[in-house]
Amino acid sequence: MVAEAANGLADRDSVLAGVLEQFGPPPLLRRPASFATLIHIILEQQVSVEAARGTFDRLVAACDEAITEPKIEALGEPGLRSLGFSRQKARYAVALAADCMSGVFKIAGLSKLDDDAVRAQIVARLGLGDWSADVFMMMALLRPDILPVGDLALVKGLEELDVRAYPDRNDILIRAEDWRPFRSVATRMIWQSYVRRRGRDVV
Question: What is the pTM of this model?
């Protein structure tokens, strides 16, 4: 599906055609639709992917390879901070665990909801905003038409490709209108370009 959509996008957008020609179809970057994925997304807020991965790997080890709500509750904010969580992110993780255990937030049911309903459920959680909802919908629920306008790699990557600045997010929305209904795939293509231009692998 990704390769087919990428080819269709390339037919409509010369910039994306250049990305496809240079790098090929983008990787899917799929993650489980799970509590652990949301914790990982919390860790990725406003830091590099590599820095977040280091803290997440320490958390996985501390949880005996299975990150669950009771284990996060047991670690508590002090335990999470000892693993590299910031004060705020430790608070967000513990609050998320509490919401899941109380039944206020049901991750398993998100796949049955439309995009707007999923977003509403996620942004209602402490510390989880639109960017977190976008990443979860793209990578865990594999929704095809998500555009994470708050994502730095998307913005910077698009600015590099278009050789112009996008200080207003509405300009990105306008620029991406022709990418519907596969804005998620276009985003993956831009991420791929952004990372590969810096000599890194897409992870």
Answer: 0.95
